[in-house]
Amino acid sequence: MKRNSQLSGVLHVLLHMDAHDAPMTSEVLAGAMQTNPVVIRRIMAGLREAGYVRSEKGHGGGWSIACDLKAVTLRDIHEALGGPSLLAIGNRTEAPGCLVEQAVNAALTQAFDEAEALLLKRLGGVTLAALARDFKKRLAARGGPHEMEKAHAG
C-alpha cells in the first residue's frame, strides 16, 4: 500500500527554507523532495495562497518563508495542501447491499473518524517553530553548517 508522504515532504522543504538565508528555487527544493520542480511549484502555490510562503521572480528569486513559524501548525500546512486523507486504509465498497459489509464499514468508519480526529488534534499542537528548534538542536549536536545539497546528495 502506497503512503502519501506529501505533508512530510512539504514540512521538510519548509525547514530547509527556514534554515536558508535566501530564496530557494523550485529546482533546489525539488531535489530535497526528490520530485519534479513542477510539483514543487504546484504545492508552493497553495502554500502561497495561505500566506505561508512567497515567491520572488528573476535572478536570485525563488521561494521563501512568509509567516511566523510560531503561528503555523502542522495541521495548518495539512489543510493548505487540501486536507488529503490521513489514513491509507479504507472501507470495502464492492457490495454495498451486503449487510455484513455494512456492519463492518459502520464499525470501521467510526474507528477511522476517531483516529483522524486525534491525528488532526495532534498536528494542531505542533508548530513549524517546534520542528525548526528540533532541527537546530540536531544540527548543533552533529556540528557543522547546514548544507542541504550535501544532505540530499544521491
From TrEMBL:
GO terms for molecular function: DNA-binding transcription factor activity. PROSITE patterns: HTH_RRF2_2. GO terms for cellular component: cytosol. InterPro entries: Tscrpt_reg_Rrf2 (IPR000944), WH-like_DNA-bd_sf (IPR036388), WH_DNA-bd_sf (IPR036390). Pfam families: Rrf2 (PF02082). It comes from the Bacteria. This is Transcriptional regulator, BadM/Rrf2 family. It comes from Parvibaculum lavamentivorans (strain DS-1 / DSM 13023 / NCIMB 13966).
